[in-house]
Design brief:
alpha+beta; single chain; 7-stranded mixed β-sheet; 2,3-Dihydroxybiphenyl 1,2-Dioxygenase, domain 1; 270 residues; 5 helices
Length: 270
């Protein structure tokens, strides 16, 4: 269920928020993330010794508008199906406002949003042996999720995000898929793993997606003007050989995508 074998994976997602206290409390109580530290207007949250989310308060930032490029959702990958089931039971008991639940064939996913509207997916992968069609392509769909069946796997009480929880992927709203592919597939080296109408999924190491991009609400969106709420920075952990390959294609440790989202590369631990 881990993405750790991929040469590129999500390290940290940084969000700009207005109400740091309310948003950080949501991720702690709702998703069970642990607070690492708070330095002035910044709170870092994660699991174990791994920072997954950085919240940056800027009360003067304009609020992101519908149809603007930016974050569609941050997807938190649980280590196994019982962990997702325990979280779902917690979400229902806590009366979290869920927005949807889908069987994507490669995964089972539940959707919600934080208090400032930043999208969240909480999901678990199915075994990789079940991802592929006979021709070797990855099969993805958006089917109804069997929530009662999932809840039957809730074998214990929820006590917070378990060890092994990571940000499995980040789904973006972009202005054009061709530009997204030129940046994320060609420059960063994340092959296109699957396509939907209006969306593309980019993954490394055979993973179904580390970055997804869609134009469902944001077709022809312009580059973002900062400061603005929502996605502030995406930090990718990259192994040394892949980092060198990115640099050979004109990439750098600090880049921006075509919609001005900062992308930072850090080296994965050996």
């Amino acid at each position: 269920m881990s993405t750790a074998s991929a040469p590129i994976e999500i390290a940290t997602v940084a969000l700009t928020v207005h109400d740091l206290s309310a948003v950080s409390a949501f991720y702690e109580s709702g998703l069970g993330l642990s607070r690492f530290d708070a330095a002035g207007p910044i709170v870092r949250l994660g699991v174990g010794d791994r920072v997954l989310l950085e919240l940056r308060q800027d009360r003067a930032a304009r609020r992101a508008a519908r149809g603007e490029a930016g974050l569609f959702h941050t997807a938190f990958l649980m280590p196994d199906r019982p962990a997702l089931a325990r979280w779902l039971r917690h979400a229902l008991d806590s009366r979290l406002q869920l927005q949807g639940a889908s069987d994507h064939l490669v995964s089972e996913a539940i959707y919600l949003a934080d208090p400032e509207g930043n999208g969240i997916e909480v999901y678990v992968d199915r075994p990789r042996s079940r991802w592929h069609a006979p021709d070797g392509t990855i099969r993805m769909a958006t089917d109804s999720l069997d929530l009662p069946g999932l809840l039957q796997d809730a074998d214990a009480a929820w006590i917070g995000a378990p060890q092994g929880t990571v940000v499995g992927h980040v789904h973006l709203e972009v202005g054009a898929l061709a530009e997204a592919e030129a940046f994320y597939a060609t420059r960063l080296g994340l092959p296109v793993m699957a396509r939907y109408p209006g969306a593309a999924f980019f993954g490394a190491g055979g993973y179904h997606n580390h970055i997804a991009a869609n134009v469902w609400n944001s077709c022809r969106a312009s580059p973002r003007q900062f400061p603005v709420t929502g996605l502030a920075e995406l930090v990718l952990a990259v192994d040394a050989s892949e980092r060198a390959a990115i640099q050979s294609r004109g990439g750098a440790d600090q880049m921006v995508d075509p919609w001005n989202t900062p992308i930072t590369l850090v080296t994965k631990p050996a």
